[in-house]
Amino acid sequence: MSKKFLYVSANPKxxxxxxxxxxxxxxxxxxxKQNPNHEVTExxxxxxxxxxxxxxxxxxxxxxxxxxxxxxxxxxxxxxIGNLNQLLxxxxxxxAYAFVNPMWNFSIPPVLKAYIxxxxxxxxxxxxxxxxxxxxxxxxxxxxxxxxxxxxxxxxGSEMDFxxxxxxxxxxxxxxxxxxxxxxxxIAMGLDIPEIEKLxxxxxxxxxxxx
Length: 211
Description:
Elements: E1 4-9, H1 19-34, E2 39-44, H2 55-65, H3 75-93, E3 96-102, H4 110-119, E4 126-129, E5 132-135, E6 141-148, H5 155-158, H6 164-173, E7 178-185, H7 193-208
Parallel strand pairs: 1-2, 1-3, 3-6, 6-7
Antiparallel strand pairs: 4-5
Helix pairs in contact: 1-7, 2-3
């Protein structure tokens, strides 16, 4: 059976203008080369209708949980919950993932947070047991490729990293404990940017063999 790889990017820039996307491209093209029979889906969150968990969506959930059907929802609710379920099913069906984004103000872009809110659903990607929550996505792998102006992978900067640490915690919560990290960092510090990009691409390509 062909494996499914889901490449999730969250960057509004063109690929040629984005360090995270350029490194991500190096990774996914090498992945395709080494795994020609795998199904690769690229999901650009800035070009996707990612539903936010607002009052309208929660009202729709409530109607469905109380015995209602899709016919009880208004048109906008049906569309948003339909989009949400489609994204969730796509995520659940994948065997491995790449998350590619810039760090914005020490965290992730809002649309990536909205996507995480979509894929973290009790009874789908995790469930509660008498011993606490348990992830249902065990055995899957992911890589996180993130660009940042400063350096946050060292001890001095790690306390300000609410981006990679958050994603690592989220994925671990649903059972994805195998997460590789490719930081493309220090690009606003007057360092050798071509060298930073080159080393990040090399590291990303090295990780392909682990998928």
